[in-house]
Amino acid sequence: MSHSVELQNVGMAFGQTRAVTDVSFTVEGGEFFSILGPSGCGKTTILRIVAGFLDPTEGKVLIGGRDMKGLGPDRRPTAMIFQSLALFPLMPVWENIAFGLEARRVAKAERRKKAGELLKLVALEGLGDRMPGELSGGQRQRVAIARALAVEPQVLLLDEPLSALDLKLRQHMRAELRSLQKRTGVTFIYITHDQSEALAMSDRVAVMSDGVLQQVGAPRELYDNPATPFVARFVGETNAIAGKVTAIENGLATVESAFGPLSGRVGDGLSAGSAAKLYVRPEALQHKTQGENRLTATIERIDFEGAFALAHGRLEDGSLLIASIPSTELGKAPEIGTRAPFAFQNANAVVLPDG
Amino acid sequence: MAELYRRFGGGLGTIFLALVAAWLAGMVLAPNVMMIDYSLRPNLPPAEIGGSRDVYSLQNILYLANEGVHRAIFFKTVWASALVAFVTLVVCYPLAYWLAQNATPNQTAIAILALTIPFWVNEVLRTLAWYILLAFRGPLNALLLALGIIDEPVRWYGNTGVLAGMTYAYILFMLFPIYNSIESLEKSQIEAARDLGASVWRTHWRVVIPHAKAGIATGCVFTFMLAAGSFVVPALLGAPGSRWFTEIIYNWFFEGGDWNRGAAYALVLLVLCLTVVLVTLKIARVNLTDVAK
């Protein structure tokens, strides 16, 4: 079993600027853990703190239960894959991969052998004598992974390594990273701003915003039960409808909105009488006239996305409503320019305090 | 050239080309051709110039080959210049690395300003400052005596003085090429090396130095050429035991009155410098256009 990583009340300030505030979470050994957030949210700072490039100004980092304070990146059981990959351009591929072993004074024959094995693991057999500049983007990616795995790390830290690849290759590499992680059993901490990447690959995801940890959970949990308005908006598409909480009972909250009473599941920190927003996903909205939570929107356009289409409409107060229509039901979709009724079930919406 | 004509038109373009050609012919080609011409002819009284004894020969160059003292000074100048280049490299590399990778923009600006200001002063005056610093009863000896590091003043003039003076005089010629080449190194490469467990030494040896090779070679070539051709520093900070080849050349011209022999000596120095430059660049696999940049 690989080492776990534990962050305890980690904070980081650069002079007057606060990058990370009071972040605590535990990554289990052998887990594929993602940190998701928009650029500038502090996720890369967290990764660099775990790697040992930065000393947190507050709190501590434990890897495998051991406090990492005072240990530099060269003395931690972690290996990092940089956003730019940072392959050494003047060394052939095999020397790149074996660089960590060279630093550990492993004999040359042994290094060559190990590099060969790793090249096989990442399906690049026979390319050891090429220079990194002669490889394609996806191949360089794999060299970077092999180089990091060569030092047999307990924890692999990945800083948006797929961001430079085109969509097809990115999807392919996602699957490959995932299977590589399962095969090697190494703990992965993966940084990304791409929510679909995080949801598709990870066992668990931590969502961050402005240096603050918003929520940690399995992808399904984040999507279905967002703990904060930020998570509701950032993870997947959603519609937000403002109002005032009139009643809370049986785990359901009723919000008095401009379009009448609407209800959904009660979110964290909600109290009766306070301002709140109800969040409902586009796929939870159904085009029908019956049902308890009804909204009427003027359809402006319908974007065909393949498996489904997104209907963009305006509510009476001018705010936007997005509803998803499965492609198989496009025949029954509302006409553009007409006023169309939508309804959703209580269980498919969540009410969170406004803020 | 086509670009030049396209941009400035026929008239102006031709004028620019003519100016460059005149510069090259008058300032570069002609003096060198004259030097070669002088060096291959004997030193004759004015009446005999153009006479029957005025024929081309290698006599002047062979004189240097057979003159033991001059020959020794020539080789000493070669290796001492190489030593100057090496010492300057050792001094500049850490500084260039720090400036290029670790310093904040403010620190870089201040450090570069501090390094550049002395160069607003003439080289003779800068060397004179070292002349004062290194004097037998000068500030350096006074300081070392006061600290108890030495018991009696040291005579710095000579090899030590020349080495110190030259290293100081040519620091910028080494610093800037190395700084430029290290600056283009992505910081994550250094971090990656460290993350993979490499020591500081290995990171430099395997990652930074290979990347900065062109800059290092350029700096060394500059420094070597300037050192080998330097006159002021050895003249001021040297001692009779540390004579530089340029001083011998000077003597042939202004004291020996034998311009031909002086020209021959200068030609030998020029050929040597060219050889060193080309060999160094060959070893470092850098071509001349890279150096010019």
UniProtKB/TrEMBL annotation, chain A:
Signal peptide: none annotated. The keyword Transport applies. Keywords: ATP-binding, Nucleotide-binding, Transport. Residues 5-235 form the ABC transporter domain. One of its GO terms (molecular function) is ATP binding. InterPro entries: AAA+_ATPase, ABC_SmlMolc_Importer, ABC_transporter-like_ATP-bd, ABC_transporter-like_CS, Mo/tungstate-bd_C_term_dom, P-loop_NTPase, Transp-assoc_OB_typ2. The keyword Cytoplasm does not apply. Belongs to the ABC transporter superfamily. PANTHER family: SPERMIDINE/PUTRESCINE IMPORT ATP-BINDING PROTEIN POTA (PTHR42781), SPERMIDINE_PUTRESCINE IMPORT ATP-BINDING PROTEIN POTA (PTHR42781:SF4). This is ABC transporter ATP-binding protein. It comes from Chelativorans salis. The lineage of its organism: Bacteria, Pseudomonadati, Pseudomonadota, Alphaproteobacteria, Hyphomicrobiales.
Automatic annotation (TrEMBL), chain B:
Pfam families: BPD_transp_1. Residues 74-280 form the ABC transmembrane type-1 domain. The keyword Membrane applies. InterPro entries: MetI-like, MetI-like_sf. It is a multi-pass membrane protein. It is found in: Cell membrane. PROSITE patterns: ABC_TM1 (PS50928). Keywords: Cell membrane, Membrane, Transmembrane, Transmembrane helix, Transport. The chain crosses the membrane at residues 12-34, 78-99, 128-150, 156-179, 214-237, 262-284. SUPFAM superfamilies: MetI-like. Belongs to the binding-protein-dependent transport system permease family. CysTW subfamily. PANTHER family: INNER MEMBRANE ABC TRANSPORTER PERMEASE PROTEIN YDCU-RELATED (PTHR42929:SF1), INNER MEMBRANE ABC TRANSPORTER PERMEASE PROTEIN YDCU-RELATED-RELATED (PTHR42929). This is ABC transporter permease. It comes from Chelativorans salis.
